[in-house]
């Protein structure tokens, strides 16, 4: 198909743009259907959203045959705004599969928390469409638009529990921090455009490689400011302050979505602008990203250490700080890309780590959603005795936590960390590798502490309310009664836990699958 504008004819490759397009069309279909579906049949909207995300993920299969580009300049077909290469497909798979697992988590939450179904599913699909568009963006304008399409619906999702003060505060903090990040990003992009005269990433790279001396400081400032804007999106320290309160205040499936898809969006943006657009300014962004990585993993782990089961601390807040620390690990290969001749291998390590993290972190949030059905406070202490009432859920959560810690049998987590560590060493960033090793050891404490809570003996009595209460029947029942009469697990929630566990087990048995897949991602 062709479109004509100002006398220019441009071809559109509809197959290449199918994944984000299908997600966007599914969102519009849900929004329209919401106007006509009666209240008692609103659950059909969730099934429609799940089907749309599954179809969008399946549309990636025809694209595996080779790179495809569209929205190219008529004067130069090699300069395009959208490219579906291996890197794009890997990140789009992460985004769409993560959104699909989030949708499975959300089916029960939408009904139980009385969230507006049409709005929820439309916002989730819209955000997923923007997140799927971003890795294919090859010009700064498309990149910023995709970033905002992914982010703006997330604000509303966080604050969708109307009348809930925590939800409203979380949405406000998230909104203000994201607006600041967008303003900073646009300022940096404007400086880069002023220095190079182009918005396409390949042309920006050429322009920065031969920037006039009088514009060098402007270009360097643009590179640094653009990086700061994306650091907000990834929750890198010191731009992480919004994360804990946002995760705790948001509906649990939305927190899970932000922890995985939100990070994928930010890291994809950083990778595209640094490795594709700013390679000649590696001296600026390389050290900056390395320092951000060290600060982020350290601050996240130290804060997570403070979340203890004996102090009624929130499990979701612990997962929030854990996600901050994991962001630090994800930044390490990006920093290493500035110091090696083959940045593609380094970026492949980030993609491999992100795929592992997405599967096990969504699995941990899925088990947290199960616990939240009977213990809405979702304290770490509420997981005590989970094995007694929900043995499969406890084993799954224990496995997910061990993967995040990088301990057997979570072999995929260990392999991902070793890969990132080796990339840092090969790049000559020995100090960063040491910082990472220390932080991995620190993280073992709170991951293992939470894992141990799962297998402790449930507290007896009606006030035990916690771990035994995971399988609670009526309020006030004894711990043993709760263990004997657990509530049924909704099928979509069970499917989400099962899919995450199966994926983690398969990859732990054959970690080379994900490493080989990611090693061919870029560039």
Task: Note down, in words, how this protein is organized.
- With about 525 residues, this protein is mainly alpha-helical.
- The protein has a domain at about 295-523.
- The chain is built from 20 helices and four strands.
- The chain has a two-stranded antiparallel ribbon.
- Helix 13 (about 345-370) packs antiparallel against helix 16 (about 410-425).
- The longest helix has about 30 residues, at about 165-195.
- The relative contact order is 0.09.
- Its EC number is 7.1.1.-.
- It holds the Pfam family Proton_antipo_M.
Taking all Cα atoms into account, the compactness measure Rg is 23 Å
Report the structural category: mainly alpha
Q: Which band does the percent of strand residues land in?
A: under 5%
The number of strands is 4
Overall geometry = globular
The residue fraction in helices comes out at 55-70%
Strand order of the largest sheet: 1-2
How confident is the prediction overall: mean pLDDT? 84
Order of helices and strands: EEHHEEHHHHHHHHHHHHHHHHHH
Task: Tell me the number of helical segments per DSSP (H or I, 4 or more residues long).
Answer: 20
Pfam families: Proton_antipo_M (PF00361)
Protein name: NADH-quinone oxidoreductase subunit N
InterPro entries: NADH-Q_OxRdtase_suN/2 (IPR010096), ND/Mrp_TM (IPR001750)
Membrane topology: Multi-pass membrane protein
């Amino acid at each position: 198909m062709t479109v004509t504008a100002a006398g220019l004819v441009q071809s559109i490759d509809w197959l290449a743009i199918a994944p984000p397009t299908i997600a966007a069309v599914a969102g519009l279909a849900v929004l329209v259907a919401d106007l006509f579906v009666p209240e008692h049949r609103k659950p059909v909207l969730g099934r429609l959203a799940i089907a749309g995300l599954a179809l969008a993920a399946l549309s990636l299969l025809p694209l595996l045959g080779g790179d495809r580009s569209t929205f190219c300049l008529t004067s130069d077909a090699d300069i395009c705004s959208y490219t579906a290469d291996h890197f794009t497909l890997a990140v789009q798979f992460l985004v769409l599969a993560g959104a699909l697992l989030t949708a499975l988590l959300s089916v029960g939450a939408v009904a139980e928390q009385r969230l507006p179904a049409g709005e929820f599913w439309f916002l989730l699909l819209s955000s997923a469409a923007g997140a799927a568009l971003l890795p294919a963006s090859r010009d700064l304008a498309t990149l910023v638009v995709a970033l905002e399409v992914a982010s703006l619906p997330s604000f509303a999702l966080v604050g969708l529990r109307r009348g809930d003060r925590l939800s409203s505060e979380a949405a406000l903090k998230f909104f203000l921090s994201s607006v600041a990040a967008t303003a900073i990003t646009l300022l940096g992009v404007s400086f880069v455009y002023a220095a190079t005269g182009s918005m396409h990433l390949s042309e920006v790279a050429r322009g920065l490689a031969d920037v006039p001396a009088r514009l060098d400081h402007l270009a360097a400032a643009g590179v640094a400011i653009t990086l700061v804007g994306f650091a907000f999106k990834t929750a890198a320290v010191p731009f992480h302050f919004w994360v804990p309160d946002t995760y705790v205040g948001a509906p649990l499936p939305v927190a899970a979505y932000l922890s995985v898809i939100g990070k994928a969006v930010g890291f994809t943006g950083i990778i595209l602008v640094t490795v594709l657009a700013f390679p000649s300014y590696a001296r600026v962004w390389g050290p900056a990203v390395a320092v951000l990585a060290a600060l982020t993993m350290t601050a996240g782990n130290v804060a997570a250490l403070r979340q203890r089961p004996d102090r009624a601390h929130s499990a979701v807040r612990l997962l929030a700080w854990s996600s901050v620390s994991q962001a630090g690990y994800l930044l390490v290969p990006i920093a290493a890309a500035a110091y090696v001749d083959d940045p593609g291998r380094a970026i492949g390590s980030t993609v491999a780590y992100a795929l592992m993290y997405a599967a096990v972190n969504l699995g941990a949030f899925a088990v947290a959603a199960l616990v939240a059905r009977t213990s809405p406070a979702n304290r770490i202490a509420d997981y005590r005795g989970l094995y007694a009432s929900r043995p499969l859920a406890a084993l799954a959560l224990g496995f997910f936590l061990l993967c995040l810690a990088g301990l057997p049998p979570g072999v995929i987590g260990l392999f991902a960390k070793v890969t990132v560590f080796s990339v840092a060493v090969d790049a000559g960033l020995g100090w960063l590798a040491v910082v990472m090793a220390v932080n991995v050891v620190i993280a073992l404490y709170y991951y293992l502490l939470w894992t141990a809570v799962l297998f402790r003996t449930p507290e007896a009595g009606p006030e035990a309310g916690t771990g035994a209460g995971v399988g609670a029947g009526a309020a006030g029942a004894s711990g043993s009664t709760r263990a004997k009469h657990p509530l049924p697990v909704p099928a979509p929630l069970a499917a989400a836990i099962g899919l995450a566990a199966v994926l983690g087990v398969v990859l732990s048995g054959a970690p080379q699958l994900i490493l080989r897949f990611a090693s061919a991602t870029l560039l």
